[in-house]
Design brief:
There is one protein chain. The protein has 154 residues and is α+β, with helices and mostly antiparallel strands. It has two domains: 31 residues; 100 residues, Jelly Rolls (Sandwich). It is built from one helix and eleven strands, in the order H-E-E-E-E-E-E-E-E-E-E-E.
């Protein structure tokens, strides 16, 4: 077997092992044994910080992968902060307001948005409607506020 053929075979073996490893990892994840249905209109939201409440749909936001319905009250404004994991969102009602590096994004109903891990940003809810969105992440939820030179959140 010539050198280029050996490299091609080696690459195919490595790719096969990576796919098999991913399938095995998926197979070991806990799976729902029954269908899950949660209606955001009747769910019991719990306030996590003033102006923000959540309903946990799956997982545990404090420990690892999770999914929630998240609600921002009208006019909610969250100071400059970051998250350790990407946060994926689908807005259901109102609008999620995001700003990073001077770029403002208004994420309205039926829209998908990803807040990239480690990106300093501000966020909030529409001034009149607030925001209701589905949120999920592959890691635990955290928020690190970025302090202003005076010591408080910006």
């Amino acid at each position: 077997m010539n050198a280029s053929r050996r490299k091609a075979v080696a690459a195919a073996v490595v790719a096969s092992l990576a796919v098999a490893g991913g399938v095995a990892a998926q197979a070991t994840k806990p799976r729902a044994t029954q269908p899950v249905l949660v209606n955001a209109d009747t769910a019991k939201f719990k306030q996590v910080i003033p102006g923000i409440s959540k309903v946990v749909l799956q997982g545990d936001p404090d420990k690892g992968p999770y999914a929630t319905f998240t609600r921002f009250v009208p006019g909610q404004k969250n100071a400059l902060h970051t998250h350790s994991s990407d946060i994926r969102q689908v807005v259901l009602e109102g609008a999620y307001l995001y700003e990073a590096d001077g770029r403002k994004v208004r994420v309205g109903p039926k829209s998908f948005f990803v807040v990239p891990a480690g990106t300093p940003h501000t966020s909030g809810g529409d001034p009149k409607e607030g925001a209701l969105f589905y949120e999920e992440s592959s890691g635990p939820f955290d928020i690190q506020f970025i302090k202003s030179p005076e010591g408080g959140p910006r």
